[in-house]
């Protein structure tokens, strides 16, 4: 069997598969999100470890865990985990959605300079990235900064607790802003800016490479075998893309989760001079370009639950199908925005509301606004010569046929739904199977396991209409920009 562990923001989920990659069982465990101040988001790394032990033990009540050949990880990116010389957690981890680092990002982008950041790392500074978090600790918690012995990402901590091996991978390392993405190495110049050194950082591996075995201590704690190989895995977006089969050159997947992601895989490193998109290493050992919206399904859930207080999704979808959002606009920047505008001060807005508009019209406008944000990311990807003809779509929003048809009409490309919704966990299993020799490479595993099951084709007339409406969407953001 094979085990995939997905270290998420709200919970840790473990998927168990047979030797063909078929999911045979799963288990999950939730843990708290700490919000001590406005714009802060933290978690206790030991909550991840305890959840990991709990789900594995639960699976052990139903399966012989000694038959697990390999295990791998999918993890929330950018989080800052700090250990002292005794391997004790120094403070709660700062998460990907922690936005306290505006001043540090301004320093990196404007004083150090975006051109230098792109030359050294391939990317510019965003509040979610790890490097600004390290600077924040240095600037605000000097005593904690002085204690740092090991710097990890969330899934690296769970792997470390399982193996005792201090390791990370290139896909997750890409989101730190102190890794040279193009050359797959820690950036000495960025480490100097941050005031840290390479001895505090883990050894880097490809996401499908074994880094060790389950330790004796962890085996005794959970019932696993010390013969089980541990494959390091990767960041959630890259591993999730593996779980959709988006691993070939010029392929695209879109995630309609709380945040929205437009992910294009490519065989070569793509330098993005504007820094509008992220250019990272892929979990298959190649590269990818990615745009991230902070509020995609998050915008829709806010509208549906907080404003409408309506939990009947099917009824809302019927309203959407009947509605028209002509001359009605919604800016989906409810948490600021990352890609491609990189504006933490951006704010959401409705524009063009009249007495004739219905609840359904406004709901449709919310969906159109989210889809315009995704289109904005895709256009930035197109601008560097990557032009996929179709995309696979995952996430909660992909359950809505009305949403998917509107997205196809706006993007102007075919959208596919696939035969699995397991995403990151399945991607981790494919990496584990590759690392254990079941597949010769990640691509082979994806081709054998993942298939299209439904397709949404764009309406050419609607696409032309939305091209014009998108121009007004962009003008509206500029007009309201602080």
Write structural notes for this entry.
The relative contact order is 0.13. 38% of the residues lie in helices and 21% in strands. The termini are far apart. The protein has helices spanning 45-60, 102-121, 130-140, 142-147, 154-163, 170-173, 188-194, 216-222, 236-242, 297-307, 313-322, 359-382, 401-411, 424-435, 442-449, 460-480; strands at residues 2-7, 11-17, 23-30, 42-43, 70-75, 81-83, 93-94, 150-152, 167-169, 179-180, 185-186, 203-205, 210-213, 229-231, 234-235, 251-256, 260-266, 278-281, 287-293, 329-331, 349-351, 390-394, 414-418, 452-456. It is of the alpha/beta class. Strands 1, 2, 3, 5, 13, 14 and 15 form a seven-stranded mixed β-sheet that branches. A seven-stranded mixed β-sheet has the order 18-19-17-16-22-23-24, with helices on both faces. The mean pLDDT is 94. Helix 9 packs across helix 14. The protein is globular, with a radius of gyration of 22 Å. It is built from 16 helices and 24 strands.
Distance between the termini: 54 Å
Query: Which residues sit in consecutive blocks of at least 5 with pLDDT less than 50?
Result: none
DSSP strand tally: 24
Radius of gyration: 22 Å
The global form is: globular
Question: Which class best fits the helix and strand makeup?
Answer: alpha/beta
| Count of DSSP H/I helices | 16
What's the rounded overall pLDDT mean? 94
Percent of residues in helices: 25-40%
Strand proportion: 15-25%
**Sheet of most strands:** 7 strands, mixed
């Amino acid at each position: 069997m094979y085990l995939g562990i997905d270290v998420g923001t709200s919970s840790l989920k473990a998927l168990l598969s047979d030797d063909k990659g078929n999911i045979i069982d799963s288990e999950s465990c939730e843990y708290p999100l700490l919000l001590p101040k406005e714009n802060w988001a933290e978690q206790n790394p030991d909550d991840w470890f305890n959840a990991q032990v709990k789900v594995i033990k639960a699976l052990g009540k139903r399966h012989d865990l000694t038959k697990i050949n390999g295990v791998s990880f999918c993890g929330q990116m950018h989080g800052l985990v700090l250990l002292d010389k005794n391997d004790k957690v120094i403070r709660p981890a700062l998460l990907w959605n922690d936005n306290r680092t505006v001043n540090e990002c301004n320093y990196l982008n404007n004083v150090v300079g975006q051109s230098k950041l792109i030359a050294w790392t391939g990317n510019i500074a965003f509040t979610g990235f790890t490097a600004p978090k390290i600077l924040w600790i240095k600037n605000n918690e000097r005593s904690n900064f002085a204690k740092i012995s090991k710097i990890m990402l969330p899934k690296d901590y769970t792997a470390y607790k399982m193996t005792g091996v201090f390791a990370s991978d290139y896909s997750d390392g890409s989101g730190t802003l102190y890794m040279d993405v193009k050359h797959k190495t820690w950036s000495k110049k960025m480490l100097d800016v941050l005031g840290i050194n390479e001895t505090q950082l883990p050894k880097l591996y490809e996401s499908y490479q074994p880094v060790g075995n389950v330790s004796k201590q962890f085996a005794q704690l959970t019932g696993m075998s010390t013969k089980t190989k541990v494959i390091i895995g990767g960041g959630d977006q890259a591993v999730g893309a593996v779980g959709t089969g988006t691993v070939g050159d010029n392929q695209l997947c879109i995630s309609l989760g709380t945040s929205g992601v437009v992910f294009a895989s490519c065989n070569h490193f793509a330098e993005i001079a504007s820094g509008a998109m992220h250019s990272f290493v892929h979990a298959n050992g190649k590269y990818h370009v990615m745009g991230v919206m902070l509020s995609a399904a998050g915008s829709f859930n806010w509208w549906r639950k907080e404003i409408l207080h309506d939990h009947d999704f099917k009824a809302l979808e019927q309203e959407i199908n009947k509605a028209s959002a002509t001359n009605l606009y919604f800016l989906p920047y409810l948490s600021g925005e990352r890609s491609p505008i990189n504006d933490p001060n951006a704010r959401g807005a409705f524009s063009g509301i009249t007495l004739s508009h219905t609840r359904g019209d406004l709901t449709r406008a919310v969906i159109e606004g989210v889809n315009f944000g995704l289109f904005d990311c895709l256009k930035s990807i197109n601008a560097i010569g990557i032009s996929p003809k179709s995309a696979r779509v995952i996430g909660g929003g992909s359950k809505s046929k009305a949403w998917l048809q509107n997205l196809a009409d706006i993007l102007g490309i075919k959208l596919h739904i696939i035969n699995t919704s397991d995403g990151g966990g399945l991607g981790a299993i494919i990496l584990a199977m590759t690392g254990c020799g079941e597949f010769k490479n990640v691509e082979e595993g994806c081709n054998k396991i993942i298939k299209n099951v439904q397709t949404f084709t764009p309406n050419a007339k609607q696409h032309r209409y939305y091209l014009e409406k998108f121009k007004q969407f962009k003008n509206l953001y500029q007009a309201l920009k602080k």
